[in-house]
Amino acid sequence: MKSFLTVFGSFLFSVFVEGFIRVIIIFYHKGEFSIFGISSLPGVSWAIIILVSILIVSWLSGMLTITITGFAPVKHLLSLAVLFMLWRATEIINIYSSDPLWYLILSVIVSSGGLYLAYLTQKSNVKAS
To answer: Which domain holds residue 54?
Structure first.
């Protein structure tokens, strides 16, 4: 039960933080809020900021999951990756006609890359200790 709650809690944390970052950007530019995609963002530079935030939040969620569970990091990261991919699939289904293909592809790659970086960080910490 602890593993399930940790993975699901980490996923909800990442969705919340990504949404909060979008809210900050939209309120700063006084635009309309969209939980998905980049069509409501004021420019490409903000889309890159969203992608960087996805990377950081994915890495942070992965590290949170690994730290709390303490065992079988690959299994827990794969569970978190499945939730992230379902979230990204929902995003792609909702915005595939309005947003550029490069954003859709990069959001999946960056999200997976954040989890892979969390695994590499955990692996290097285990070797160091």
So the answer is: 2-128
